TrEMBL record:
UniProt GO MF annotations: ATP binding; nicotinate-nucleotide adenylyltransferase activity
NCBIfam families linked to this entry: cyt_tran_rel (TIGR00125), nicotinate (nicotinamide) nucleotide adenylyltransferase (TIGR00482), PRK00071.1-1 (NF000839)
Enzyme class: transferase
Source organism of this protein record: Biostraticola tofi
Similarity comment: family membership: Belongs to the NadD family.
Name under which the protein is recorded: Probable nicotinate-nucleotide adenylyltransferase
InterPro entries the UniProt entry points to: Cyt_trans-like (IPR004821), NadD/NMNAT (IPR005248), Rossmann-like_a/b/a_fold (IPR014729)
UniProt domain Cytidyltransferase-like: residue ranges: 15-197
Keyword set, alphabetical order: ATP-binding, NAD, Nucleotide-binding, Nucleotidyltransferase, Pyridine nucleotide biosynthesis, Transferase
Annotated pathway: Cofactor biosynthesis; NAD(+) biosynthesis; deamido-NAD(+) from nicotinate D-ribonucleotide: step 1/1
Annotated EC: 2.7.7.18
Functional description taken from the UniProt entry: Catalyzes the reversible adenylation of nicotinate mononucleotide (NaMN) to nicotinic acid adenine dinucleotide (NaAD).
Amino acid sequence: MPESPPCDVKPLIALFGGTFDPIHYGHLNTVQSLAAMVGLDNVILMPNNVPPHRAQPEASAGQRLHMVELALAGMPSGMFSLDDRELRRQTPSWTFDTFTDLRSEWGPCQPLAFIIGLDSLLTLPTWHRGTELLALCHLLVCARPGYATHMAEPEWQSWLETHVTHDIGQLHRQPAGCIYLASTPLLPISASQIRDRRHQGLACDEMLPPAVLRYIDAQGLYR
Ligand code: ATP
């Protein structure tokens, strides 16, 4: 039987999805540290479309996208790029569907990764085809203050333990299938905290890039 040709080694492509309502330093600085740890030259930010049954963002899709663009303009050149496919789709963002598309675009050999915070990993088995995502990509998980690496259900915990790797090389050699729990610096910043502080008229200067804050003021967001 003929053997299939071996895959060429290709640089790992990593995407970071989020509502980004608004984007903040908890996103940007944490992912920058992760990129240095894992050896990523670039991270693709992918703002999502929130399904109608979930709490809707305060900012519109266009405003969230623009805030991501403003944040990226202030980051080291080439470090981040943007993929707005989920916003253009006009239907709910199922991460599984997005990675199905990405896998068919890049082919079976391309190492792909989805970056998430630890809070998101803890709920991932409840997402649409959440655990099946590992057939399509790796999961790179950033630490988040207040969350411990312990899944609520024993079968989720054993799913996690089966797939965890400590070998960064495996993330680059294999196209998908590993969970990497990164000890990124703990940054106690969240978008909901920023929105709450704005609602109360409190300053958020240290929490997000100045250009994003100026845009929030100009648009009268989170009043
Ligand atoms: P909200 O407070 O409205 O829930 P958020 O700050 O968690 O928003 P999202 O856009 O929902 O921001 O998050 C996108 C991704 O970034 C998620 O996977 C989340 O876990 C991760 N993330 C957000 N803030 C941090 C942080 N401070 N440290 C590590 N990961 C984070």
